[in-house]
Amino acid sequence: MSPERVMKLREEFPVLFSKPCGFWCEDGWFDLIHDLAAEITAIAERDDLTVVAMQVKEKFGGLRFYLEERETPELRQVIDAAERRSFTVCELTGEPGRRCKSKKGFDYRTLSPYMATVLDYEPVPPPSGELK
Predict the structure, then answer these.
(1) Burial class (CB in 10 A: 0-12, 13-18, 19+), 125
(2) CB pairs under 8 A, 24+ apart, for 74-80?
(3) Whether residue 74 has pLDDT greater than 70
(4) What integer is the mean pLDDT of 123-128?
(5) 52: Cα separation from own chain's centroid
(6) pTM to 2 decimals?
(7) How far is CA 26 from the centre of its chain?
(8) Cα angle vertex 76, ends 71, 78, to 5°?
(9) Residues 6 or more apart from 8 whose CB is under 8 A from it?
(10) What is the mean pLDDT of the chain?
(11) What is the pLDDT averaged over residues 49-65?
């Protein structure tokens, strides 16, 4: 994610992103991550919790959002929902997308149809089962 977008998240959600947190994903997921950060922050404020993000990344074409500790069932539920939504949002453009596999190797990304064509990826079904 671009430094400008990371800075915007850190400024808007200073407690959640209070410690150095790796962001290893593209700008297309900014809105998805922003919405998730807002949900997490609202839950944390309501329940008087200190919730800190440890890592935000792409893995096998989907978003992964890890908290440092104190994960409640409700927090896990909103994180899981955002991770599932990531398989419908192009990680590069933010447009509607789907999980794709590189035609040249074992690399998965969630891409819009246009970006999949440009990067030589082909659509594949989203992973089944629990995301981790």
Answers:
(1) exposed
(2) 74/43, 75/40, 75/43, 75/44, 75/51, 78/36, 78/39, 78/40, 78/43, 79/36, 79/40, 80/131
(3) yes
(4) 81
(5) 15
(6) 0.92
(7) 9
(8) 130
(9) none
(10) 94
(11) 96
